[in-house]
């Protein structure tokens, strides 16, 4: 009896580890199969999303291309009943606008001001320079300078400012800085002839005028000097500059007058006249 009982215990002890090993193998196989299935499902989902995005991209590209072609072919009926292509009409309008801008830049009058214009980056301005080609006769009294250069060289007119007959014409109400410079040059053709005679005495007077609705122009600046040059002096130089801020109205005219205009050096960098809104 004791020997039989011992054999049964040995048999039960030998079969227990085998059952545990089979159970562990079944659990590992099930986990592996689940992981494979999950990866397969994710792969299918990603492939589906990529395919959907690709199809949507192609569809949107085709729609944009169709819209572009439709816009280029779109035509409207003009006033005369003819068909007008929008793209061609826009291109032609841009071309005409650029041509008009180039023509305006070549003229000596600035472009007109817009309605209600007050101030900004495009303020009226004018800078006139001396014209060496003008022939001024000898004159001791007051003479209005009428031959300023307004187009060539350093001269500039912009943003509605105009020049007419020696006058700067103001295009809009506002405060303006007005300035002018005159360079006088005395030349003695015979410095050693009759040295005992009296010296050359000149009154050099420089005026700036404003003309508005009043019948007579109003003097707004003046500078003067009596200059005495010896008979033995070959040449003499003198420069007069004026500048000031004035309230002007649309249509006002500003001009410069001088005495002894035949003595003025009309080089563009020596004598000039201008105004600009501030």
TrEMBL record:
Protein's GO biological process: apoptotic process; immune response; positive regulation of extrinsic apoptotic signaling pathway
Membrane topology summary: Single-pass type II membrane protein
UniProt-listed InterPro entries: TNF (IPR006053), TNF_dom (IPR006052), Tumour_necrosis_fac-like_dom (IPR008983)
Domain of life: Eukaryota
Domain THD: 124-278
Keyword field contains Membrane: yes
Signal peptide (UniProt feature, chain positions): none
CDD domains attached to this UniProt entry: TNF
Transmembrane segments: 35-60
Stored Gene3D superfamilies: 2.60.120.40
Annotated SMART domains: TNF
Pfam families recorded: TNF
This protein's GO CC annotations: extracellular space; plasma membrane
Cellular location(s): Cell membrane; Secreted
Predominant location category: membrane
Keywords: Apoptosis, Cell membrane, Cytokine, Membrane, Metal-binding, Phosphoprotein, Secreted, Signal-anchor, Transmembrane, Transmembrane helix, Zinc
GO MF: cytokine activity; metal ion binding; tumor necrosis factor receptor binding
Oligomer and partners: Homotrimer. One TNFSF10 homotrimer interacts with three TNFSF10A mononers. One TNFSF10 homotrimer interacts with three TNFSF10B mononers.
PANTHER family from the UniProt entry: TNF FAMILY PROFILE DOMAIN-CONTAINING PROTEIN, TUMOR NECROSIS FACTOR FAMILY MEMBER
Role this protein plays: Cytokine that binds to TNFRSF10A/TRAILR1, TNFRSF10B/TRAILR2, TNFRSF10C/TRAILR3, TNFRSF10D/TRAILR4 and possibly also to TNFRSF11B/OPG. Induces apoptosis. Its activity may be modulated by binding to the decoy receptors TNFRSF10C/TRAILR3, TNFRSF10D/TRAILR4 and TNFRSF11B/OPG that cannot induce apoptosis.
Membership in a protein family: Belongs to the tumor necrosis factor family.
Protein name per its UniProtKB record: Tumor necrosis factor ligand superfamily member 10
Lineage per the UniProt record: Eukaryota, Metazoa, Chordata, Cephalochordata, Leptocardii
């Amino acid at each position: 009896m004791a020997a039989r009982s011992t054999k049964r215990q040995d048999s039960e002890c030998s079969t227990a580890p085998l059952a545990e090993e089979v159970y562990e193998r079944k659990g590992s196989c099930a986990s592996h199969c689940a992981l494979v299935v999950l990866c397969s499902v994710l792969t299918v989902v990603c492939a589906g999303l990529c395919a959907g995005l690709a199809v949507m991209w192609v569809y949107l590209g085709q729609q944009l291309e169709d819209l572009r072609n439709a816009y280029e072919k779109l035509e409207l009926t003009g006033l005369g009943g003819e068909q007008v292509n929008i793209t061609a009409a826009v291109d032609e309008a841009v071309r005409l606008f650029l041509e008009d801008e180039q023509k305006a830049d070549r003229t000596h009058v600035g472009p007109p001001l817009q309605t209600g214009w007050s101030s900004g980056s495009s303020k009226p301005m004018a800078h006139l320079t001396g014209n060496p080609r003008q022939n001024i006769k000898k004159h001791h009294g007051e003479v209005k300078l009428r031959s300023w250069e307004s187009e060539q060289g350093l001269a500039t007119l912009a943003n509605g400012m105009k020049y007419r007959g020696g006058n700067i014409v103001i295009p809009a109400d506002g405060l303006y800085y007005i300035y002018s410079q005159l360079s006088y040059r005395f030349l003695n053709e015979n410095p050693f002839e009759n040295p005992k005679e009296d010296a050359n005495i000149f009154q050099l007077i420089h005026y700036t005028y404003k003309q508005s609705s009043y019948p007579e122009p109003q003097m707004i600046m003046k500078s003067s000097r009596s200059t005495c040059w010896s008979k033995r002096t070959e040449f003499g130089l003198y420069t007069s500059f004026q500048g000031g801020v004035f309230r002007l109205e649309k249509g006002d005219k500003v001009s410069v007058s001088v005495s002894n205009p035949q003595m003025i050096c009309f080089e563009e960098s020596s004598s000039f006249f201008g105004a600009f809104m501030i």
